[in-house]
Design a protein that fits this description.
6 helices; 3 strands; 144 residues; mainly alpha
């Protein structure tokens, strides 16, 4: 056992698809869950998140899309999701609840329309949007 660390955790306060929050002293502890998505899903998530937060240029994120993604998906993502994100400013400031729900629904509709096969669509959407707006693993806590 490592000196100074205890295997005992405090009371579980919250859980997201990506992390568990435990009460701790003097600070709360986060346990980050790994391996939620397949490598192809993670690659898709990173490309879409990078597109949303503009850390990847258009040529970069479209080149990173897995080969299984249908043609036309990138254009539809740019037209529907990125345009809405820009107009509602969800990347630039803390999103309003109705904006978050709207962009979540738009993502769901887009993935359904292009028949993107995912192990857990709801978690995938949450992951892409949280990373895309800069929340990362703390997205659920930020929206509370």
């Amino acid at each position: 056992m490592v000196q100074g660390f205890s295997p005992v955790r405090g009371i579980r306060q919250a859980e997201t698809p990506f992390a568990i929050l435990y009460e701790g002293f003097p600070y709360n502890e986060y346990e980050i869950k790994k391996g939620i998505f397949t490598p192809e899903e993670e690659r898709l998530a990173q490309a879409l998140s990078g597109a949303l937060n503009r850390s990847l240029h258009s040529d970069e994120w479209t080149a990173r899309l897995p080969t299984s993604i249908p043609k036309g998906f990138a254009g539809a993502f740019k037209t529907r999701i990125m345009s809405y994100a820009d107009s509602s400013e969800i990347v630039d400031k803390l999103p309003l609840e109705e904006d978050w729900e709207k962009v979540t629904q738009l993502m769901n509709d887009l993935l359904t329309e292009y028949q993107i096969s995912l192990t857990d669509k709801e978690r995938f959407i949450e992951h892409v949007l949280d990373d895309g707006v800069g929340f990362g693993y703390l997205g659920l806590r930020c929206r509370e």
